[in-house]
Amino acid sequence: xxxxxxxxxxxxxxxxxxxxxxxxxxxxxxxxxxxxxxxxxxxxxxxxxxxxxxxxxxxxxxxxxxxxxxxxxxxxxxxxxxxxxxxxxxxxxxxxxxxxxxxxxxxxxxxxxxxxxxxxxxxxxxxxxxxxxxxxxxxxxxxxxxxx
Length: 148
Known about the structure:
It is built from four helices and eleven strands; from the N terminus they run H-E-E-E-E-E-E-H-E-E-H-E-E-E-H. It is of the alpha+beta class. It folds into two domains: about 5-90, Homing Intron 3 (I-Ppo) Encoded Endonuclease, Chain A; about 100-145. It is elongated.
């Protein structure tokens, strides 16, 4: 969509975009814009180009699009402007949830089988071994907050 003025194309209401124009035969003015992709983000197609809705909304309110736009609450479909912030790749990665195969369910905390303890590692640096998962979680959260 390039340098297009998004306010001429969309209305913004509570994190959603609605068409102000009729971009195709199947779409009416006032229809909600966007579909959810397989990776969970909302995208909109306009003039044969797909653009992520959170990037459009950020641009509408701030006049620019940073390299990355982070969903503060980690919900990819929550595109309310107050939930979006500019971020670097590393800041955006820090705000991700633990991977699905994580035994602890906590980012930066893993199980060390040989010692039968929870290990906290952050940015390749070891921050301790813990018998108690809650203690490991507390340390992992403290470390990630300090680094942001």
